[in-house]
Amino acid sequence: TSKLLTKSILGSFLGLSIYALNINILFLQTTAMSETLFLAGLSAAIYYFVKWVHTRSDFDLIPAAIAVSALSYTRYEGWSILAASVLMVVVLSLVIKRSFKKAEGLTILYTSLAITGFLAWTIYLWAIFGDPLYWMHVYTTPSAVSTDSEQVVQIHSQQKPFMAAVWQYFTAFTWTIGVIPTFFCILGLIIMMIKTIINRSLYFLPLLMPLAIYLFLVLSLKTETPIIQPDLNWGNIMWPYTSAQTGFNIRYGILLLPWVAIISSYVFSLRFKLISLLIFSLFFVQVLSYQNPKYSVIYNIAYNPNYTKAYPLLVGWFKSHYADGEIMISATSHENEMFLMGFDYKTYIQEGSGKYWKESIDNPSRYAQYAVIDAGHPDDSLAPYFLNNKHRMGILERDYDLAFDDHKENVKVYKKKVPPYFKIN
Asked: Span 233-256, mean pLDDT?
């Protein structure tokens, strides 16, 4: 894609390096997460759309549609690309073909292929959850409400003003892609727009299409989806241990990495190659920081902070005493321990368990055989719900026995006196 846009082999190679040498993409491609598959589909979609504009070959819309369909199968963010791409095809078809009928035909051809993933997933949601718009309700429904008698105490949601959500996602974007590539991207956007005006090209539309992902995530952050991350400020950039701070869902910021790599290639394709190489050398400051973090110009998702001594004891206790049933535990503070315990992940009721998590907060007895309350960890999601609410704590102490207690680290495990009311299938 970069080669088509810039006609520069050096600029294309340096742009590719922005993607291939990102520490977070190197980590995520070793996991079972969906981000890398999504990024592969996004890269293919951008390539074939740019190629379509470049060659004016309508055949390129077919692989572009297949790539967008794959995106919509992989993550909900792909649905934003589907909507944006249909609109883009309509506009570009009218401009390129200068015929309403031809533009209509191309749009129907593209849409009929690109929409297959969306339709299949919608049918799945209807069949499994009985609601074809289940995804929308999950992204926009407020979380559980804390009450004391009839008075509302707190609404546990992530609702925030639009501009606050814009900044929150920009922060995740900058941390996971890197402060330096973000600077390259901003500079590349300026160069791209100048070249677009001078050459009167149409390339800017396929290159602006991925920003639909940004808008989708801003709207979901505005309502419900949480991202927990360090503040983006000079203090955290210059501090070597920023990656030790909590990063929950911060990986969403990497969904625009291929786009950043392509836009950055505009910077490296400038006429003065030596200047381009000098600018790119800044990127190696980021690469060097992976193993020698004297500063934090990128948030390293794989960074493993030192946990307190209670956690090996917690793992050991569960390996020795666990019999059966679900474990209510905060993945934000105990993700490593959940892995080391060696249990099937469906055993855990945690922040990603949807309604089971929300219902268990108010009534642990409904599903959980065990409840882990860690008052010693500042990011534990369960402790504030119970320790700051006498009603919830009373229910917990009524229905559960204290089975494990590390007084030094303030980690406790409660075990249900009788089996829970319901079994999660």
From this structure: 88
Nearest to 82 by CA among 52, 107, 114, 109: 114
Q: With the CA atoms of 282, 287, 290 and 291 taken in that order, what torsion angle do they form, in degrees rounded to the nearest 10? A: -100
pLDDT band at 156 (very low <50, low <70, confident <90, very high): very low
pTM recorded for the entire structure: 0.73
Cα–Cα distance measured from residue 230 to residue 292, given in angstroms and rounded to the nearest whole number: 19
- Residue 139 identity (one-letter amino acid): Y
- Tell me which residue has tokens 């569960």: 318
Q: Return the structure tokens found at 261.
A: 């790599």
Amino acid at 187: L
How do strand 411-416 and strand 368-374 relate by DSSP bridges? Answer: antiparallel
Q: Extract the tokens encoding 166.
A: 């814009």
CB neighbours of residue 359 within 10 Å: 17
The alpha-carbon radius of gyration of the chain (Å, integer) is: 25
Q: 153-161 long-range CB contacts below 8 Å, 24 or more apart? A: 153/389, 156/361, 157/223, 157/224, 158/221, 158/223, 158/224, 158/225, 158/226, 159/222, 159/223, 159/224, 160/221, 160/222, 161/222
pLDDT at residue number 144: 37
- Rounded alpha-carbon distances, angstroms, from residue 129 to 122, 133, 134, 172, 423: 10, 9, 7, 31, 18
| pLDDT range class, residue 424, cuts 50, 70, 90 | low
